[in-house]
Every structure is written in C-alpha cells, then in structure tokens.
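Exercise 3.2. Students should predict the tertiary structure of the chain below and write it as structure tokens, then compare their answer with the key that follows.

Predict this chain's 3D structure.
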Amino acid sequence: MKYKKVELLKEAIKHKGFIQKVPVVWRMVKLWRKGEYKTSAIDIVLPLLGLLYVISPIDLIPEIAVPFIGSLDDLAVLAVIIPKLMKEVDKFLLWEAMQKEGITTIDVEEVK
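Answer key:
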C-alpha cells in the first residue's frame, strides 16, 4: 500500500479530537513562549518538529527511492508525536482550567 504525505496527514487528523485541539495547540505554544505555561521544551518542540518533518519534502528515507519503506518513517513519526502532542494538550487544558479557578499548584500523578 502506497502512502502519500497528504494521506498520512489525513490519517493523523483522524486521531481522537485532533482537529478540535489544533487551536489549543497554538494557544499552548503562545503561552509557553510567553513563559506563562511551564513545561519542558521537548514536550512542545519535539511534536511540532515532528509535524514539520512529516509535511516537509525532505525525508530520511525518500518515498521515490523506496516507495513503501519511504512512508514508514513518516508513519513512525506520526505514531510517536500525535499521542505525545495530544497528551500535552490535555495537560495544558487542565492547567488552563486551574488558572481560571485560581488554583496555582496541584499534585498530579502521571498515568502511563
């Protein structure tokens, strides 16, 4: 089965709630850059770099050279970054709700 980047992106956006959370991602990045939302840079930058990699014409394994295998690197990147980005968005939404309620600290256990 041959995948093109557009088809890969269509599959990625089918991830539960991805489209609805796109504006939240931009809001999260904006507040993170301002220093208001505190999280590690890797939790924000890595997923965004992954998305840029998938939509860029540059590939580690070009689709033209190795048609099926060439799409696997994009699929692997999407498989890692979409869930990571959605997890960070969920944490951001929790943080945002706490800010509105005036809650400044909370102990949270990470579920794996």
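Discussion points: The chain has four helices and no strands. Residues 5-101 form one domain.
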